[in-house]
Structure prediction request, 133 residues.
Amino acid sequence: MKPLALLALLIAAAAMRPAAAAPVASVSCPQAAPSTGNLPAAKLDGVRVLSYPADQPPADGEALPILAPVREWTRAGTLYQRWDINFDTPQYLFQVDCLYAGTERYLRMALPGVKQCVAAVTQRTKMVRFQCK
Prediction:
């Protein structure tokens, strides 16, 4: 095979390969509340997954709609909750509130580009983990 023909074949083969998938966004709640001022340390105690219409952002202080998990199950002493999200984006925006024990503080994060969130609550230790991908 002539070098020019081989080069054309290699270029054509490369063009036919699927492009590498864009990295999936990942969001998780920190296990401890971010330190602010003189407030005591607090561990992650729960989460709220929120959604609202993109063209109707809530006014300051207005409560946001909290989504119920689409599935819950227990395995080996751990309660799992799953939310399927961003299925109707860009019409709706999704956020999570990471809630911390013994305080009214929370950390609110946007959930762009993620498709599913899972919370895991270990019954014995009351440890909460939250991850979105």
About this structure: Helices lie at 3-16. Strands lie at 27-28, 44-53, 71-75, 78-84, 92-100, 106-110, 116-122, 127-132. Confidence is low (pLDDT under 50) at residues 1-22.
